[in-house]
């Protein structure tokens, strides 16, 4: 993660999202250590504390690990019957072999303290604890045969998981499949955490994790400088595939930017779709002070210098000031337990010299 200022210097969005991140250091370290505490951190809103929190957040994200809740791992209380987002009622009787088919969901399971029960992973589960698990997806499609070979007792999917035939084949084998709605905005993080915890029979752990994240977010947002409201454009790019998009309402980034005290430039310019092809006219209307990108997307266009060669970008305030912030693909729009760290970094980076 880096921010480019003046002078020289993955994961693709889900199908649903494309259709449709001193004292303060000690506070952050304590929060990331897994406790449900963190009240009081919000009282320190100085620029120095924001920088310290961002530095600590960046250090934690660089480890590419999750931070489980403190204490003894919870023991699932089963059976439970829960609502599945495909309109079914699903009964979970055994959580000894959990298979999350979504990277963000896997992150929640591990952070709840149930990582030792996870038997496989989706291609988007790239954090260290999951890396050595068998992968059951290819190009984001699920292999029913690979799933069944791991003998899971419960499968956690989302509405983007496919193909549908594979999901049905897993169900036909007698394995409960709980389908969740995708997380596309900040408020979805706690909702999905609650649903995962309930499906696995550990609702109290879900409440503790939600409280921890709430405290961390409050502390991060307290660092927003008073009177600072930069316009930030989220650009999704894959240069090798000639994909050049600007985010608007519903991109996911709009929710993060709002939490970080910024204005989503695409939404402010009237872009009502999650993503719109970049044009010089759209950029001229958006006039972003800062550009936010995924790291691989920035690399795919040749870094900052290559980005500025794309028509219209160099003429924006962000282009003129070379103000580009990039974050790792799987974390920025992951909407999981590490999202408060994303807000910490955004609060610091997007308000610099704004």
From TrEMBL:
Signal sequence coordinates: 1-36
SUPFAM superfamilies: Helical backbone' metal receptor (SSF53807)
Domain of life: Bacteria
Region (Disordered): 65-84
Record keywords: Signal
Keyword Nucleotidyltransferase: no
Matches recorded under Pfam families: Peripla_BP_2
Residue stretches making up the Fe/B12 periplasmic-binding domain: 97-354
UniProt family annotation: Belongs to the bacterial solute-binding protein 8 family.
Name assigned to this protein: ABC transporter substrate-binding protein
Source species of the chain: Streptomyces aurantiogriseus
Lineage of producing organism: Bacteria, Bacillati, Actinomycetota, Actinomycetes, Kitasatosporales
